[in-house]
Amino acid sequence: MAATALCFLVLACIIGTALGTYNTDPSFSKWPTYMQKQILFAIDTSYYTAAEQLMIRNASIQISLQMKSCIAFVETARSDTRYKIFITPYTADGVLQTFCYSYQGQWNTAIDNRATEQLMLITRGTYGCLDGTLHSILKYFAIVLGKRNEHQRGDRETVGINVLTGNLQTSPYPLTNAYRFYNGSEANWALFPYDYCSITHNQPSDYANSGTQGFTVISDPKAIPKLDKISNTDCKLLSMIYSCPAANCDPMDCVAERIKALNSVSTVKPMATTMSPASPPPISTVAGSVATLAAGATTKPTVAAGVTTPAAATTIAAGATTVPVTTVPVTTVPVTTVAVTATTTPVVTTTATSTTMTSTTTFQQCPSNAYCTNAPDESSYLLGPFVQYQTLLLFSGQCVLEYKFNWATAMLDPTQPPELITSYFPGPGGPTATPPLSLNYMSYSPANDGTITLTMCALMSSSCLTCVENGAVEFQVNGASTCPNPSNTVTTDPDQTVTSVTSQVFQGVSPPVINQYVVLKASNRTEIGLMSSDFSTLYQSSTGFLSGQSTIVQITAIQIIQDQQGFNGPPMLAVFGIGADGLGYVGYVIMPLGADPNLALGPYNWVLQPVPIGQSISTYCP
Predict the structure, then answer these.
(1) Which SS3 state, helix, strand or coil, does residue 15 take?
(2) Domain range holding 589?
(3) Model confidence over 436-458: pLDDT tens digits?
(4) Residues 505 and 609 grouped into a single domain
(5) Taking the model in full, what pTM does it have?
(6) How far is CA 423 from CA 374, 392, 420, in A?
(7) Is the same domain home to 275 and 380?
(8) Where is each Peptidase M12A domain found (predicted)?
(9) 255-309, pLDDT tens digit by residue?
(10) Spatial CB neighbours of 146, under 8 Å, sequence gap ≥ 6
(11) Distance between CA atoms of 611 and 618, rounded to whole angstroms?
């Protein structure tokens, strides 16, 4: 647990007004930061013709060009022991496939078990993607970066297309699975407009019976263009996943492209998007690979129990749906995160029992509607073990609310009702910091044992309390930390200069340090800054931070938010504050959050306008 409590201190979130569907399946992650310039791939030259090999290479070059080399695919030999993508028509068992397939990102299980490659199936035939177009191959290069099929997003029937299930082929393969809905654990599409021009969108004739269409387009012009390039939305999505400049994305008039497609006659063969039940997703069994998948396996493989040797072959049960609990090696974690070391702690998915309670419910003397109208005093991470989705804390008056960010709905989901701060953080002999709390921050323990501490300060009482990480606890009514007694043992109280803190690991030095993003008191709570771990040095400060929106006039709390797979894009800062009406609001800002003291804080990209805090915490705020 030494550094795992701060593994969540680098955000990966994409919420935007012009973005499409992207992966949230925790079985997969984005390609690591150190490999962004060199995502390696090898081609099965024993199968493909010279022309087909050239088409595959051109697809890899095309996406690199459109991403302005921020993401680049680099060809290598299959014998290269570095982790790579192997492009082949054969499964790990040597079976020639009739469908094309790619994992939606780097497959974590393969990395955990020290494999040297994952497969991308590119094949010929009726259902293959070697149809003579660059488009059909380019799609799978986008998918392997984390883009998911636009036509499978959960809201497609109201904003995109209407699938005609009766027209879909059932022989020789049942192909309805190609149009199944994604759920929130697989992909995120909340707040994002439907992208008819996405490289991942099927054509109406794909998987349909002869002379019919598999779906109809809802809005005019009623056509799906088949372009030999990724869309502007695809580019912006990938840019945010890999922290590339979105401004570099080429513009695209999607309506104009759809009109062109409407006026042309498509002769394109159907192309695969998911594996047939008879054709399992691939994982190589050559030297360094570790797993095969049984027929019928979903795209969310589950590692069978009893795996003890990293290099041993693992069989994935047919129809498996649970997410594997795996060790994430340093190579799969972005540069600005800390590697996971625990491998036996199960991933806990807790259903909040509070969801059935009404706004009048009380718990430990804290009303459940305490957060519905007022802006919180402060926010912080839960001081506990590494989990799939980070747990956060909101402080308001005497109360604390434990919650997680819901990536599918972009809302705050409480894990339990609000509780008194003094009971949530119990000291060995008495209460902890005296509420209300004015700011909280994290640091490495002064004992230099690798643990993390959470310090909570109360301006009114001029006291702070430092609690020590307790990695054995995640969800319980008294928190996940051990707090000493008395409650005034702390060396740093930054209340005189800052009003809110969210901590971040800076990996640009060895050993890494924790720097502090803060709300500056001297700015009347309208600007933020980056300070040293002990608040002795102000490295950077913002100018016009709130100018990108018109709702929040004073900031009360800030919080970095992310999921644990590093898949959902660049850092995002949750900003809690007070509006001109005196009510509480929350908004989100996409900005560089690497805690580098030498870099400016901006630019700042506010995601839509901030919303009322009660609208974001719907569990207790009807």
Answers:
(1) coil
(2) 353-616
(3) 888 888 888 776 766 778 888 88
(4) yes
(5) 0.47
(6) 22, 17, 5
(7) no
(8) 36-242
(9) 999 999 998 754 434 333 333 323 333 333 233 332 222 223 333 332 222 222 2
(10) 22, 23, 28, 30, 104, 105, 237, 238, 241, 567
(11) 12
